[in-house]
Amino acid sequence: MKKLLRAAAVAAVTALALTACGGGGTATDPSNVTPTGEIKPREISWLLSRPADGAVINIMKKLADDYAKDHPGFALNLITTPDRPSYIQKLETLAAANKLPELFDTDATPFAQELAKQGKMVDADKLLKSLDVYDDYRPGALDYQRFDDGSLYMIPFQFELEFIWYNKALFEKAGVSVPKSLDDIPAMCTALRNSGITPIAIDGQDQWPLERYVAYQPFREAGPDFVQKLKKGEASFTDEAGQKTVNWMADLGKAKCFQEGFSAQGYSDAQNQFTSGQAAMYNIGTWELPSLATDKLNPEVRDDVDFFTLPTIEGSVTAANEFVSPSGIGMAVNSKTYDPLVSDFLKFALAKYPAEYAATGALSPTTNVQTAIPANATPLYKKALETATTLGDKQAMPWDTQLDPTTNGRLQQELVLLVQGNISPEQFTKTMDDAIKQNAPKFFK
Amino acid sequence: MLPNRSRTSVLVFLLPPLLLYCAAVLFPILQSLFLSFFSWNGISEMEFVGLQNYVRMLTADDIFWRSFFNALLYLAICLVLQLGGALVVASLLTSLRRGRELIKTLYLLPAVISTVAIAFLFVRIYSIDPVGLLNQLLHWVGLGSLERAWLSDVNTVLAAVSAPEGWRFTGLYMLIIYAALIAVPKELEEAAVLDGASKWTLFTKIRFPYIRPVWITTTIMATTYGLRGFDIPYLMTNGGPGQSSELLTTYMYKTAFTSTDFGYASTISVFIVIECLVAVGLILFMLKRKADS
User: Fold this and answer.
1) Distance (Å) from the C-alpha of residue A232 to the closest C-alpha of chain B?
2) Which residue from A264, A293, B93, B103 has the highest number of Cβ atoms inside 10 Å of its Cβ?
3) Which domains does chain B have, with CATH numbers?
4) Are the beta carbons of A409 and B254 separated by less than 8 Å?
């Protein structure tokens, strides 16, 4: 038995040593975007985190089939894990095993930047330029995918605007109007609560929706740079912008802005609360236009639903037409498996994608196509799409793609406690500043 | 004693499962032990840090200790529900004349339902908005003041996520204990009854000592299952709100796959292995001492 144990230990250590050595991989030059050689059709894979029957997947499937007609033997294997946390775990595990497929989805997270730094992703800036489509993209759509240093390694497939949807009838019942300032929201919540209305429906289970709120005040108070500095420890929650958001979040909690027990409620719970007319506000992006601005919406609230964009504050450094406008999770191209086939397929697909995507009624990440408004849309649909044309230059970045993963996890946990009133703003400030101090240096060397 | 040749054949047949066990259980444990001395995010170079991860875990990580105590409480609730519940139900079953099979099946049913379904079911049961079963029941019996968002309240969430796990396996342990209880020789019980033993004495002096070996096994099973509890709390609350329902297992998982800190996560997993071994050792020690006395 002793011998057996020893043998197992040796095997374990050897295996680990081997995998550790193999970890580096044999990445090719990530800036070489025009590989030469013959196009040899084969099956390629795209590891993605998008709804299985969503427009992106359906269109790419169709485009892959079209491409396969001229290139027998080609196939695009779409492996989707729509649940974001599970997807990220899958991605990180595959990256650790050096087994990433030809194409994979990722946000511009610190982890993705590490992959890019190691030369594992093709330079998307160069790639899009070489395919002659770079100028078609909305600058905002590309900027959302960029890392802090301005480099671009992901290609966007969507473009969304995030609004605060509200129910006019409920506002009227409570005697409140669209807030002029972010600072008006706690008082609005109190008025709505006094009229027996849930002010804001939120998906607390997925954590990112609540994390959106923490980004709003600093974006207005100190601009988009605040989170860039905060995440590296160059700014802190004790700063003016930091304290403003901490106290505001606590105020939202005190005013009972969110539905009771929100932390255990999911995406569809929140959506149902708003669309059934129980909650007065709902903060979500244009990806929900089909359920909020078409005849699919409950007839009882259909005419009452409207939206407003992120309110400003007094002395706001960002303008009213600047808010969260993400271009969704991006697609990265694995430099190790990048060859003439992958390049040729991307050229084919990216040229045809925008028109197909806009035809589904969604905002394309490019400006060369016109979004088709579905036949069953309400007037709100058009109004929402038109907001994209007046968008300002700066955009509020969701913090979950910015902070290092450990700090991000801690922030999501502590935010719930802060809003529920389980911890004080001071405790929150200290915990988060400590978390950044401890975890940021590892990620932002 | 088996004859020599058949002993060899037994060993030969035991070898494949043993190898499989080594590959599936011992190897990962050793791998974790090895990794726990490194700092590694999965994609960059591994950096040897010696005992630094252990020092951090034991002295500088408040979430680790919070998760550890949560895990102990989670275990305690699971054990009371599973073993206590199982013992009560099994004892009652033995004195039942009809319908035993039906009741046994009903109790066992939750053990075959998928964990994900159980988690979602209980999220609905605990819900306050819309009102779930539990809050509705409290309202009906006039305990409306106790209504709350069970999974969002930091004081109740841990008990709330422990209960489904306990509920789920009560039937399984009940079945094992019931099988042991019906094996208690009838003559012994009848003799005790003739001597005037009460039901309680009958249980504590005859039945329970008789099933003690089975009891030890079920306790060990339930304890190790409880210590590795993961899926239901993870699915129901993801450790929240805050760290109120974070267990060592969920914390380890997040450290590895969300924070990509594989070295530190391995350190926590080594702790979990040690914790399980210590728990089993303690159970054996305590129950054996009691049996000896």
Assistant:
1) 16
2) A293
3) 14-116+150-292 (1.10.3720.10)
4) yes
